[in-house]
Specification:
This protein is mainly alpha-helical and 184 residues long. It has one domain. Helix 1 runs antiparallel to helix 2, helix 3 runs antiparallel to helix 4 and helix 3 runs antiparallel to helix 5. 21% of the residues are buried.
């Protein structure tokens, strides 16, 4: 396997898994917020039956299995890419900034992924048939009330990293550096 092929395969896996994570996170957020009233304080809607609420949480959990796995695969690909390109990061500033932004937001997303897997363990593998179970309700509502600011931070950092990748600022141009050296 050539070095160029490995790099392209790694990039393909990384962008595919992070795209699945990003799109799935948006869908899961819309699905999860469906159980809450709009307003300053998030309160669970009482007009939904227990079965409807539990079904929504199950759909959220099914999506969490895909998005969490995709994020972990993407995270590992970013780490492998960082190790492979660590010597060239001084010349490729946009890549360095993208990786730094992604890694700074990763602890938040990894913690949210952990909470999602705990919810999966309770909802999908447990014998819970009632949304009003305190374990399920506390884990689900804390994901949207206490952690409500953290998920958009990771999404915005991902979008910012994509902007760096698309427009490629901070790229060291050696030809202009040689021109500056000739002038001075």
């Amino acid at each position: 396997m050539t070095d160029k092929f490995f790099t392209r395969l790694l990039l393909l896996i990384m962008f595919t898994s992070l795209s699945i994570w990003f799109g799935g996170s948006l869908v899961r957020s819309a699905l999860g917020y469906e159980l809450f009233h709009n307003g300053n304080k998030l309160e669970i809607k009482t007009e939904y039956s227990n079965e409807m609420q539990l079904h929504t949480v199950k759909l959220f959990s099914y999506g969490a299995a895909y998005t969490g796995t995709a994020y972990i695969v993407g995270f590992l690909c970013v780490i492998m890419f960082l190790i492979k390109w660590r010597g060239n990061l001084k010349q490729i500033g946009w890549l360095f900034m993208s990786i730094v932004i992604f890694l700074l937001a990763s602890p938040i997303e990894l913690y949210l992924t952990y909470l999602d897997f705990e919810l999966n363990r309770l909802v999908l593998f447990g014998q819970f048939t009632n949304f009003n179970d305190p374990n399920i309700q506390n884990l689900f509502t804390s994901r949207f009330t206490k952690m409500s600011l953290l998920s958009p931070i990771t999404s915005l950092s991902f979008v910012t990293a994509l902007f760096f990748i698309i427009w490629k600022p901070l790229k060291l141009d050696t030809s202009s550096k040689e021109k500056v050296d000739e002038i001075s």
